[in-house]
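Entry:
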Amino acid sequence: MFKKFTPENQNTYQYEANKTFTLSQADLTRHEFIKDSTNEVSKSYYDFARINFYTSGSTSDIYGNQFNIGNDGSGRNTFLNKFYDNGSIVFIPQNKFDEEIKRGSFVLTDTTTGARIVDDSDGNLYSTNATFSQSVSDLSSQDNYVGNIFYNVGVFAITETASFDGSNNYTDVTSGNYTVRYQGTSQINTYEWTCDSQPNTLNNTTNPTVFHTNGLGQLKDNLTGSNYPTYITEIGLYDDQNSLIGYAKLSKPIPKSQKLPMKFLLRMDY
């Protein structure tokens, strides 16, 4: 009834799964930050953004190592030179992006101002429909970027203060109605087991309805012939102490072949 797995019968691997999220302003937490504001909340979020995300405020741990929770260590070309005295910072709930936001998937649509802002995969945000820009270079350049997104912590900031169309400033973006769309990523760990059975093995059954009621473990008389094969209905996984830790249930019973080897592939993701 039991068969041990060999190393060849077991496999583990990891893959990245992506899920698309679309959120409105009601699902997000936005804070305006102002450097010298008399409002302690606005001032505190300026300090928060400066210390945690922008190099001018990088701090260090007790060992003197520099850290920045917005820096994922990828060495990408992230621009941080437009951290001015005021702006806005928006927090995405972690259960709405899993492990991190997928690079190149972020789109902000502000229906109040008409702005459409996307990321460039390097942590920079730029407007795709701005009629005003600081230079004629690439939209996601150091001159034209309008903020940053910190993929690994689900935070984005609008730091540009200029106008993008002559009547609306970037400081107005996310102050009214807007949506964000992006993909969250998760690393999925997958375990696979190949359960094989030769014709002369695993031909017994534990189905109580096939035994005599005399308690001797004898099959009923009409089930002793070769015309009544064992049927496989589920495959259990046991630890070294023979304790059941999981099982796979087949969609329908499968007759156990007594002539050909059989293989079943079990897969578990978590």
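Confidence is low (pLDDT under 50) at residues 56-67.
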